[in-house]
Design goal:
2 strands, mainly alpha, 4% strand, two-stranded antiparallel sheet, 189 residues
Length: 189
């Protein structure tokens, strides 16, 4: 096992848990709520998904040989309301997410320290992945917050529901379930 293996496994686990939060938020929204801005000037969940899809596709497609800011990316357009349907939005987002997952799966001890570029700035693969996951987590927090603000009706908690911390800790202490991203249906109510 190389020194990079535990780190890469942690990156994979992080990506999986944040995707679950995205999917759990989006699944609770109606089509109208998906496109709803909580106030003027704020982004909708659809806009954030569009941006993340474009960003991740650009960053992680051919990342070892091309700059992470691809010439065909139109970042400004990512912040305009999505005019397509839910399925086409999710497909757009999935293309970017798949590029990230494929990139992580291709990183190994040989290339983890390789220099790559993002907007002309040199990064090691490890630095670029950390930068990208930080960006993802920032926007996942926005997705969850905006989704909760625009959603009508009961919300299914994606982490430990308020008032259930002691119960959750008692049941999951020392296990992976203690991380609580949908650890148990009872904890998510």
């Amino acid at each position: 096992m190389s020194e990079s293996t535990p780190w890469l496994n942690a990156m994979r686990d992080t990506v999986v848990s944040y995707r679950r939060m995205i999917d759990g938020s989006v699944a609770q929204l109606t089509d109208a709520e998906l496109h709803m801005r909580p106030e003027n000037g704020a982004n909708s969940v659809a806009i954030i998904l569009r941006h993340l899809g474009g960003n991740l596709r650009s960053r992680w497609t051919d990342f070892l040989t091309m700059d992470g800011e691809k010439p065909d990316r139109n970042r400004d357009a990512e912040f305009v309301d999505w005019t397509g349907d839910r399925q086409s939005l999710i497909e757009h987002f999935d293309r970017g997410w798949s590029a990230l997952v494929s990139a992580i799966d291709s990183i190994d001890a040989e290339n983890v320290g390789q220099t790559i570029f993002v907007r002309g700035e040199a990064h090691t693969v490890a630095q670029a992945l950390t930068r990208s996951l930080t960006h993802v987590t920032y926007h996942v927090g926005q997705i969850v917050l905006v989704a909760r603000l625009v959603h009508e009706g009961e919300w299914r908690w994606l982490t430990i529901a308020p008032g259930l911390s002691s119960f959750h800790n008692h049941r999951t202490w020392g296990t992976k379930a203690s991380r609580s991203v949908f650890a148990d249906a009872d904890d998510g109510k």
